[in-house]
């Protein structure tokens, strides 16, 4: 699984749009988890700032993540971002390191 890609996406909602953003992101969870390249996909809310939502995602490969961004449900939610987000998404791409013996 050396190709496995982790994406941590931090999304900050406009103050009056935090719940709407959460609902939009929640609508992605089930269909995304059903994608063949999705290993796991979890939505979190920041404990200190309720306008911040965090997606923790693991994908079999970058190609699988790229395919996810082309799904109609993903595009539909992202099309709403200009109205919902206070700033651009912050994306962190990383690779898990194996444990040492």
TrEMBL record:
Highest rank taxon of the organism: Bacteria
Pfam family, one: ABM
InterPro entries: ABM_dom, AI-2_Isomerase_LsrG, Dimeric_a/b-barrel
Residues annotated as domain ABM: 5-93
UniProt keyword annotation of Heme present: no
GO MF, one annotated term: monooxygenase activity
Listed Gene3D superfamilies: 3.30.70.100
Assigned keywords, A-Z: Monooxygenase, Oxidoreductase
Name used for this protein in its record: Antibiotic biosynthesis monooxygenase
Organism (species): Neorhizobium galegae
